[in-house]
Amino acid sequence: MDVTKLRRGDRMGDPTRGFAVEIIRPGLSLGGGDSGLGAIGRIDRATVAPGHVIGMHPHRDDEILTYVRAGRMLHRDTVGNAEEITATRLMMMNAGHTFQHEECMLDHGPVEALQIFLRPRAADLGPKVQFHDFGEVLSRGKWRLIAGPKGAPLEVRAQAWVSDAHVAAGAALSLPPLPAPDAVRLLHVFGGDVEVGGLTLRAGETAYLTAEEGRVQARSDADLVLFATDPGAPFFRGGMFSGNVLAD
Would you put residue 83 in left (φ > 0), alpha (ψ -120 to 50) or beta? Predict the structure, then answer.
């Protein structure tokens, strides 16, 4: 299996001041003049202290999956939602042409999360927000589809898919079938150590996978997030956060 480890992202903020984020732009490791990969714009890995507020701010032409692993937050937005987000209750913000939101971290320990910025198939779509309660924090020993263009709990308006799995130490998990014939994948290790295609990945690391088949071997208990996208499908690369930051 052809596996390429991506460079670590740019770090911003200070955890001692309540907010720290690592911004992963997969295209920076892959070349081609795009900071993203197909409909995957960027992945923010964040740690935010209880009580911290990320004030009201705009998004435009971003599809934003909030993937919480620990802590709780209160979400408010300009389409009328005031909802709690947890490690079982996730959120997709389909920002479209006009959207603003804020997040308040609740007093349940630090929030540890991925904020995943996906690219819509076109600009100026209508804004909407989706919530889904998955019931369980972890999907043990199998892949769980979280978001996709159809048939997923949370809809992405592009050819992009997000799944997760928990793999026990010493166990192996085969990659799921490709969701589209020309899809490629990113594997992010949220926690633990794994081996894939002869390459070791540790917590916080991400790899680019091109093979249709393969498996992940857990060297410790591991939490995995798997992204797939069809780079040849339509996507808009001018989103406020998900868009390409490299000059053409």
Answer: beta
